[in-house]
Structure formats: C-alpha cells, structure tokens
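Researcher: We plan to redesign the surface later, but first we want a full-length starting point. Tokens attached.
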C-alpha cells in the first residue's frame, strides 16, 4: 500500500545570511521513491530566520505552535472536491513512522478537525487519487498567537486564481505578526508530471514583516553626532527616537483584518515568479486609525558618533528589526532629522544641521510578509509554498520523429495500491532575499538599489546592475546619466562633483567619464517579482567609483556610488 506525505515549509522573516534550504529528516520532497513502498503525506513547516540555518523538528514545530490547519482539494484546477476540510495537523516528537500517515512526527489521523471544518467525527487517513489531475493545498498556522484572539475564516478554494479572499485573519497587529500564512502547494498528475508520490510541502511565511534603518556619513573633516528625528513634515521639536513617517496615515496599526489571496495559480502560470504565492492585504478595523509613523527605539552610534562608512553604519537598536504588518501597497517613507557636525581637526567646532530630509520611494516600501527591509541613509557633504493512471516517459519515444499518437512522449502507467498522506514540519531560517536601499539625505532624495545587495564593506555595492531613482522626478535619457569618476587630486565628494558639473570649480583633478544611461520601468525585487518604478540602470564594475547625475536644466544633483 503506497502513501502520501506532506511537508509544510514555514518561511519565517527574511534576513541576512545564507540558507541551505534543505528539508528536515534528510529527505527532500523530490527524493526518488520506491514505488512499491508506502509513503504517507506529511505536513510540516519550513521557515527562514536570522542565521539562514534551517530549523528542524521540534524547532520548526515551536514556530508553528505544534499545529497548522490544511485545506486540501483535488480536481482539474477548476472543478474541485474537498479532501482535507480544515484538518488539524499536530506535532509530537519521536512518533515518525508509527502510523502510515506520519513520517515526520506530524499526524492528522484521529484528531478533531478545526472549528471551520464541516467534517463530522475524527479526522481520517487520506490517499492519492490518480484519476484526478491535481491537488491544491492551502495551509495556515496560528503560530504562537493566542487562538482566542485571532479570528480565522474558512478557506474558500473557489477563490484561487482571483483577487478575492481565499481566507481572512482578524486580530491585533501584535497577534497577527505571530501567525503564518502558506504559499499554495499544487501537485500535478498531468502535463507530463507525476508529483503524487511525494511529500506535500506548504511553505509558510510569517505574517510579520521586518524593517530596520541605519545611517552613515561621508562628510570630509567632520563627524556627525546628536541626531534627532522629527515625526512629521511640520513638527518643530525633534526627539531621540528614530522615526520614518508617511504623508497620510496608511501604515497598518492596531486591530484589523488580513486578507489572503492567491492571484497567480494554474499550470499555465507555473513559470511565473508569482506562481502560487500568497498575497496579503491589511484593512484597519472600523474605528481604528492607521498609523502615519514607523517608530524605532534607539539609534546605536559607532564609537560614540554616527558611522563614517557603510561598513560601520550606525543602526537603529543595534541592527535589530522592528516587526510590523505587511503593506504591499507601499507608501513614500520620509525622514526628517536634525544633527550636529563636529570638526575632526581638534578645534571642537560644531555646526548644527536642521531639517535634513530624505524620501524612500513607495516602490521600495512595498512590505511583504516574511521579508526584511533595511533603509540606509547616507549623509554626505551634499546633504539634505490503483485509483487511476499516471503519465511516465515513453521509453520507445523517438525524438527524431514527430510527437503524436504513434510516437507519444508520455504513456499512461497503472498506479497500483493506495498512497496515504502524512505530514512533517521544517522551519527554515530565512527567505531568499533582503532588500537594502541607500537614500541620500538631500533634495531631491536619490535612492540606489541593487538586487540582493547587503552593505557589508566600505564600498556600497558589488559589481552588477544598479538602479537609481530620484524622488518626484521622471528620469529620461536626457535628464540623467552616469559617470565613472577618477581623481588625481581632490577627494571625490558629492559637493565637489556637483560644483564641477555646474561649472563652478575646475582643476579639481577629478575626471568624469560618461557611461550613458538606460531608463527602465521595472526592477528585480527581493521576492522574485518585479517592482514597477522609473529608474536609471547601469552595469557597474569592481573597484570603481561612479557618479549618478540628474539635472533639472538649471543645476545638477549627484550621488557617489562606490563599488567593491
């Protein structure tokens, strides 16, 4: 008798580092199986954490609160029959292989179903039905949230592939960030694919998003200290607590409802980056206001002053992330600060700089569940987841002849016996991507971004494509460009380069070699999807210094870009 297995992959918050992305128990979901042996469907969780090391077994179960709920249907992708009607799947250590439905310490047989289920009595074992073309699995976990404080509606598989809610979760922001939402898992017995005799692996993501911010400065001869933050565009008294704010109250706050959708499903979309991804959208509860500020607790100074290089950037709360709810719509994040410059020549000269501002474009603030976002601000001298037959490869297929009824590429093979379903949980520590942007504290704010770039050295970026945007400006091939900068004299700073381009200074020893510009309307996002944004693109090389320049016709605005 052959069995089904599910492994659910919980993806926790995406952070820095590297992950092997291996499945627990030493066996991945695509491992070859002996077709004569039973293999149950096991549920589990895989989550990505700060070290990008995988959590396994009890660790994974701990993130899920030792339980998740699964809704599984079978059919052809349009017509669906319920198989798992809101089944609970529970973790118990050292129980693997004690039943046909449990291979990874996760069991669903004999349990009481979730309150959303219409199942009567105890949950029963399930077997693969090879007469159907596909199975779809939607899973959710309360994680460590208090269940009494979270309202979880029934999963509606008929809404898959639409922008309508497949289910919703309601509660306070603090409780919702402890829950997990899974990407859709679809397994096919069609289109030349035989995916039934494998472990089903929903990939969970924390409903929380992580955000942090950092600062560094590149002002020759001066250090920066006493950085204070304003909470909006007009306040007159700054505070020590770092704040990013929006023009209107649009940030998730207090109590509300998270709507989960799966807009991109079906075999025809299998190659799309958004295929089977869970999307979430938060709506405030009636009478509860959204927030306009993202508040942090403390800015950690390096050696008593603001970091002077990207390698020693001063982070808020010692690089800790603030956990918030996702906001896939995005909003411009504004920074307004006051700080003091201190001369490094021993004279103790100080200069107070007030109302320095920067804007992170909304395209870079489209917060998604389980991702981490770092916003780095540079203050320069220019500040401001037998029942039938299956398809198998035809061993007699002749690739030199036309494929057809007499020369089929795939043939049907009778599936003998039944395949029970079991579950397992794996928690992987990090998502594949982190987003870091560097924005100048200037007017207009200039933001640079590179896919997968993380500031870890004195230089800001690595060789490869870099993208630049300017706040409130549409970039064209005529109003912006890049230069490669070299110098035999003055240090290359933004103020000097601006003056040189404006014709105010000469003889600086700085040579600016034009590199041209490519204007694009989308850039690669950390989640594999594209970010729609007007940007200038350049292929940068190791060991170089570049200048991005934008002109409004009367003057130039620049940003220095250093490459490792």
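Model: Full-length starting sequence:
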């Amino acid at each position: 008798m052959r069995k089904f297995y599910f492994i659910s992959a919980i993806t926790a918050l995406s952070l820095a580092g590297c992950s092997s992305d291996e499945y627990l128990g030493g066996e991945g979901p695509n491992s070859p199986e002996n077709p004569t042996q039973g293999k149950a469907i096991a549920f589990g969780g895989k989550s990505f954490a700060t070290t990008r090391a995988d959590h396994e077994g009890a660790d994974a179960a701990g993130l899920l609160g030792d339980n998740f709920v699964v809704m599984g249907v079978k059919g052809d992708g349009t017509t669906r029959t319920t198989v798992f009607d809101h089944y609970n799947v529970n973790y118990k250590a050292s129980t693997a292989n004690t039943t046909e439905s449990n291979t990874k310490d996760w069991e669903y047989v004999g349990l009481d179903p979730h309150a959303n289920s219409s199942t009567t009595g105890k949950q029963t074992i399930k077997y693969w039905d090879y007469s159907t073309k596909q199975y779809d699995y939607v899973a959710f976990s309360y994680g460590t949230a208090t269940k009494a404080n979270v309202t979880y509606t029934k999963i509606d598989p008929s809404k898959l592939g639409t922008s309508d809610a497949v289910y919703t979760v309601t509660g306070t922001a603090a409780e919702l960030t402890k829950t997990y939402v899974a990407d859709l898992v679809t397994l096919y017995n069609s289109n030349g694919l035989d995916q039934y005799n494998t472990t089903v692996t929903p990939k969970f993501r924390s409903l929380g998003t992580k955000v942090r911010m950092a600062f560094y400065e590149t002002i020759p001869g001066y250090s920066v200290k006493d950085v204070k933050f304003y909470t909006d565009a007009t306040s007159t008294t700054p505070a020590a607590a770092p704040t990013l704010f929006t023009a209107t109250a649009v940030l998730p706050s207090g109590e509300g409802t998270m709507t989960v959708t799966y807009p991109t499903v079906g075999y025809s979309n299998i190659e799309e980056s958004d295929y089977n991804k869970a999307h979430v959208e938060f709506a405030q509860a009636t009478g509860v206001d959204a927030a306009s500020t993202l508040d942090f607790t403390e800015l950690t100074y390096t050696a008593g002053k603001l970091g002077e290089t990207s390698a020693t950037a001063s982070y808020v709360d010692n690089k800790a992330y603030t956990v918030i709810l996702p906001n896939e719509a995005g909003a411009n994040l504004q920074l307004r600060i006051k700080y003091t410059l201190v001369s490094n020549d021993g004279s103790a000269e100080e200069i107070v700089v007030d109302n320095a501002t920067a804007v992170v474009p909304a395209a870079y603030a489209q917060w998604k569940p389980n991702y981490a976002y770092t916003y780095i601000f540079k203050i320069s001298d220019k500040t401001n987841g037998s029942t039938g037959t299956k398809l198998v490869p035809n061993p007699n297929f002749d690739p030199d002849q036309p494929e057809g009824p007499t020369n089929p590429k795939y043939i049907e093979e009778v599936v003998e016996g039944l395949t029970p379903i079991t579950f397992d949980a794996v928690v992987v520590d990090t998502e594949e991507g982190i987003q870091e942007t560097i924005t100048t504290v200037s007017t207009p704010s200039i933001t640079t971004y590179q896919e997968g770039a993380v500031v870890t050295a004195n230089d800001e970026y690595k060789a490869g494509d870099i993208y630049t945007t300017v706040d409130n400006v549409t970039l064209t091939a005529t109003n912006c460009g890049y230069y490669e900068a070299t110098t035999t004299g003055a240090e290359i700073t933004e103020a000097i380069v601006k003056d040189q381009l404006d014709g105010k200074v000469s003889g600086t020893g700085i040579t600016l070699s034009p590199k041209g510009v490519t204007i694009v309307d989308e850039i690669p996002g950390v989640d594999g999807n594209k970010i729609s944004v007007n940007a200038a693109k350049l292929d940068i090389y190791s060991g170089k210094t570049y200048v991005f320049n934008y002109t409004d016709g009367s003057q130039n605005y620049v940003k220095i870009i250093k490459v490792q």
